[in-house]
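== Protein entry: sequence and backbone fold ==
=== Local backbone shapes as whole numbers ===
==== Amino acids and backbone structure tokens ====
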Amino acid sequence: MKKIEAIIRRSQFDEVLIALHEVGIDFLTYWDVTGVGNEKSGAIYRAVVYETRLIERRTISFVCRDKFVDAATNAIVKAAQTGEMGDGKIFISTIDESVRIRTGEKGPESLYIKE
């Protein structure tokens, strides 16, 4: 099992959800985050200086079976990619164990519907 965490542009979130659904990832967690980027300047609009190096993004997180990892990461890249700096990152971690609280099932069987 793997945990996939992706930091993406908020504007690409709906496209990423659709792409993940198409490859069989229907359950995930997401939250809005703010990070600091490489840009060192601010923008001025109507005499007000806005901090532009603080970047608003959305983080998506889910655990999936190993066989879904390539399809899921490819779906995220395809849906989130704009070709501009700041498209995001994907992090993949190994999960040693999972337990479905309702039934007590362990391992990959605890994820989603049985195959």
About this structure: The domain at 2-110 is CATH 3.30.70.120 (Alpha-Beta Plaits). The mean pLDDT is 88.
